[in-house]
Amino acid sequence: MAISFVRIDDRVIHGQLITRWAKELPCDGIVAIDDEVAADPLLSSVMKGAIQDTKVWLFTVVQAIEKLPKVIASDKQYFVIGKSPITLRRLVEAGIDLNNRNQKINVGPMSARAQTITIGPNQSVNHAETEAFDFLSERGHRIEFRLVPDASHFSWLEAKKKLK
C-alpha cells in the first residue's frame, strides 16, 4: 500500500500540508485531485510552487482514476488530496482503493459557502457532500475531521448529529 494519507481540503495544496502532516506521516510525493485546479495552468503552477522538495502531481478525477493504481502499487509513500468528499466518492465508485496507512480519511478545511451547515472549525458541508461522506462511511472508511495533527478531532458520525 503506497498511500500513506488521504485528505479532503478545499485549499487542495498548501504549506501546512508539508509543515504539519508530512512530519507526522511518511510522504515521498503528493497526488492532488481536482478538476478545476488541474485545468487551470496558473493555479496548478502556484500550488506546485507552494511545496518545495516534494514531488506534486495535479490530476483531474479522470486522470486520477487512470494513474492511481500505479501510485498504489509503488514502493514509495504518497498523500492523496481531494478538494471535496465528492471527488473521493467518484474515485471509490471507479474502483480506486483509498485504504491507507493512516487508516482513515482526514478532513481539513471545508469553508462555509451558500447552503452549507457548519459542523466544525472551518468545516462546513452541503447536501451533496453529506451524501458523499455517507457513501464513503458506508464503504468502511473512517472519516476524521482534524485540521492539523495535534488538534482536537471528531468523526463523521459525530458531525452528522450537528446536521439535524
UniProtKB/TrEMBL annotation:
Highest taxon above the source species: Bacteria
Its primary localisation, in coarse terms, equals: cytoplasm
Any Gene Ontology CC annotation:
cytoplasm
Q: Which SUPFAM superfamilies match?
A: PTS IIb component
Annotated keywords: Cytoplasm, Kinase, Phosphotransferase system, Sugar transport, Transferase, Transport
Q: Tell me which Gene Ontology terms the entry assigns under biological process.
A: phosphoenolpyruvate-dependent sugar phosphotransferase system
**Ranges for domain PTS EIIB type-4:** 1-164
GO MF annotations for this entry? kinase activity; protein-N(PI)-phosphohistidine-sugar phosphotransferase activity
Which InterPro entries does the record associate with it? PTS_IIB_sorbose-sp (IPR004720), PTS_IIB_sorbose-sp_sf (IPR036667)
Q: Where in the cell is it found?
A: Cytoplasm
Could you identify this protein by its name?
PTS N-acetylgalactosamine transporter subunit IID
In which organism is this protein found? Chania multitudinisentens RB-25
Q: Lineage of the source organism?
A: Bacteria, Pseudomonadati, Pseudomonadota, Gammaproteobacteria, Enterobacterales
